[in-house]
Design goal:
The protein folds into two domains: about 120 residues, no CATH class; about 210 residues, Lambda Exonuclease, Chain A (Alpha-Beta Complex). Helix content is about 40%, strand content about 15%. It is built from 16 helices and 13 strands. The strands form four sheets. Strands 6, 7, 8, 9, 10, 11 and 12 form a seven-stranded mixed beta sheet that branches. Strands 1-2 form a two-stranded parallel ribbon. Strands 3-4 form a two-stranded parallel ribbon. Helix 6 packs across helix 7, helix 8 packs across helix 9 and helix 14 packs across helix 15. The chain binds iron/sulfur cluster. Iron/sulfur cluster binds next to helix 7 and helix 16.
């Protein structure tokens, strides 16, 4: 944030003041912008000609005095106001687990006081519409940046690209590859046909991927001892899990060298998250860990190998119902519930399958908006096909934040028969369309949108 000079208008409604200028003034509503440690209280520069020790001897205010005065000005200003808002930029500057903006110590203190009062950690919520939210709450506000020019060119299918695609399909397609295609076929082209890997120096990607790998490995090792035994997660020791995680965490150089505050908050997050995660009293038996899945899917005249790896398969409850569990360290994505009742959509898919219509980009884009991610349902489908064992549900468990509820694919009220129809009858139609589009469309279209392109690894070359 840049400092600009601003002439206050004393009789106008809005005054923009620095902290020092606000001395002896009182306002009903105060808004702190950029309430980060760098600004509130800010750092006093080191003065080599008049260092702090010398200031003290000369009776001039030293750093400590200036800190005390800044704290006094801050607390006096907020004590006199009816409403106080703090805005700060959250998130990384150079990487998701790298250098971050640090919330002001004053704000931390206010949050801590509020948490003590509520006897709970303050959760962060999305900003409600048309209100300024509740007192003592933290909200996120997003300002997605729209690239000024979102028209990206499609890539025409050439014999060489077709050859590359066949090679790729020959090895087997994973859920990640299919999800990439569904999100943006041009992204799939960059990643899997041209083979351009995301840039290594993008810390945000690399750190997140490493963190995900570490977490998966730790959970696999931890649960190995309980495999094929009847357990309740709540009877397992979350401190043991946390200790094991910490040990592995410090063995990874990239994590051990993270700045202290980031390391500390990550470890604290995991400590709380592990104890929430194991706070589950359902009876279960872990049947598989990191189970590899594979199935040959018929698509027109072709047979396509589909692969996946599910993190955990539980036999839950008295009836030992199979539930597939997938751990997530990134954003959780799931199909919209209403998609399976969308007869118009399934009629359109049928029209393509019967040859009445050609594959087209609009229908793929419609699927993208409604299906969002096929990963979990693909795992349920592959598992059912491979083992002939009925799948009761799939659950995504997030380790990204505190206090996040697990997301089950099916709500409790969904009957077994309906689940079977969705997994074994409706989902294959979606899958077939995605694969047909991949094999037959005349080009790899670019599904440019602010959501898709903002974090895309290929936005600079697209
Ligand atoms: S920048 Fe946008 S259009 Fe281009 S590949 Fe990425 S997601 Fe697709």
């Amino acid at each position: 944030m840049e400092r600009v000079s601003f002439e206050p208008e004393p009789i106008g409604g809005l005054q923009v003041l620095g902290m020092l200028e606000s001395r002896l003034l009182r306002f009903d509503r105060v808004i702190f912008i950029d309430a980060v440690e760098d600004n509130l209280p800010g750092h006093s520069p080191y003065e080599p000609l008049l260092p702090d020790g010398m200031r003290y001897i000369l009776g001039l205010p030293d750093l400590e005095t200036r800190d005390v005065v800044a704290a006094y000005n801050f607390y006096r200003l907020i004590q006199g106001a009816k409403d106080v808002y703090f805005l700060y930029q959250n998130g990384s500057q150079s990487g998701g687990l790298g250098k971050k903006n640090v919330r002001s110590r004053y704000l931390e203190q206010l949050i801590w006081e509020e948490e003590k009062k509520k006897k709970n950690l303050l959760a962060v919520h999305a900003m409600p519409e048309n209100t300024l939210g509740e007192k003592g709450s933290i909200y996120t506000i997003n300002f997605p940046l729209e690239p000024p020019f979102l028209q990206k060119q499609a890539v025409n299918r050439t014999p060489l690209l077709q050859e590359k695609l066949e090679e790729c399909i020959e090895k087997g397609l994973s859920a990640t590859q299919l999800d990439t295609y569904l999100t943006c076929p041009k992204k799939f082209f960059h990643r899997y046909l041209l083979g351009i890997k995301p840039l290594k120096d993008l810390d945000v990607q690399e750190d997140r991927a490493n963190f995900g790998n570490l977490l998966h490995a730790v959970l696999e090792d931890f649960f190995e001892q309980y495999k094929n035994k009847e357990i309740q997660l709540s009877s397992l020791n979350s401190e043991e899990l946390y200790a094991y995680f910490t040990e592995k965490f410090f063995q990874e150089k990239s994590f051990a060298e993270l700045p202290l505050d980031i390391r500390y908050s990550l470890l604290e997050l995991m400590k709380v998250r592990f104890s929430e995660f194991l706070n589950d009293e359902r009876l279960l038996e872990i049947a598989h860990l990191e189970k590899e899945l594979q199935h040959i899917f018929p698509c027109g005249a072709k047979k396509i190998k589909l692969t996946g790896k599910v993190d955990r398969v539980d036999l839950q409850g008295e009836n030992k119902e199979r539930v597939l569990i997938d751990y997530k360290t990134g954003t959780i994505k799931m199909p919209k519930k209403a998609v399976w009742d969308d007869d118009i959509l399934f009629d359109k898919l049928l029209a393509v399958q019967t040859g009445e219509e050609q594959v087209n980009d609009e229908l793929l884009q419609e699927l993208q908006g409604k299906i969002i991610s096929i990963q979990l349902i693909l795992y349920m489908y592959l598992y059912w096909q491979e083992t002939a064992e009925k799948v009761h549900n799939g659950v995504l468990v997030s380790f990204k934040e505190y206090d996040v509820e697990d997301k089950a694919f099916f709500a409790d009220k969904v009957e077994d028969e309906e689940k079977e129809t969705i997994i074994l009858a409706l989902f294959p139609k979606v899958l077939e369309y995605i694969l047909s589009h991949m094999l037959e469309a005349t080009s790899f279209p670019a599904f440019a949108s602010a959501d898709n392109c903002q974090w895309c690894d290929y936005k600079n070359i697209c």
